[in-house]
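Q: C-alpha cells for this one, please.
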Amino acid sequence: MKDTNEAHGGAGAAGARAPITSEPAAGPSGKTPAITILGVGNTLMADDGLGIFVIEGLDAGAFGSGVNVVAGGVAGMAMLSHFLESDAVIVIDAIDAGAEPGAIFRFDPDEAGVMSLRSNNIHGMGVPHLVTNARLKGADPEVIVFAVQVESVNPRDRELSPAVAASVTRVRELVADEVARLQAV
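A: Here is the predicted structure, written as C-alpha cells:
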C-alpha cells in the first residue's frame, strides 16, 4: 500500500458521466483498453461515500472512448461484471488504515492493505472478493485502488468531513493520470 501523502483538493461537485462507446480508439499497442473507473461507498455515511463524490466530478468524456465511469455505491457482487468485462478497473473507496484523515493510498488488490477498505466491511462484497471471483471466471483485469483515510462514517447525508473533502480533487487527478498510463500501453 502506498501512501501518497496527499490530502489537498476540493470537495466533489456533480459532473458529467459518459458511457463506454461502441467504437473506442486503439492505443499505441493497437489494442483498445476497456477501462472502468468504479466509485464505491455509501453517501449516507459521511466519508464512506468518498468514491461516489470522486466520480461525480469526473468528466468521463475527457478520457476519450473506452472509459466507463460507474457509481457502484454499495452494489457488492453486482459490480462483478465490470471486473469481467474490463482490461483495467480503477476503484475509488474509503479506507480505515489508522492514518491521518484525508491521506491518499494507492495499491493493488493483492496487497494486504486492501482488507482495510470500507467496502470490505459494509458493502457486502469487497474488492478482494470481486477480483477473486473474476479470476475464477477467467478474467484478470489490472486493478488499481485509490483509497482515502476516513475521519467519520457516522450517518451524515452526502457530506464529507473537511479532511476527506480536501482530498477529492487530488484523487481525481491521480485517477486521470492512471487512465492516461493505461491508455498509453
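A few notes: Confidence is low (pLDDT under 50) at residues 1-30. The first strand starts at residue 2 and ends at 3.
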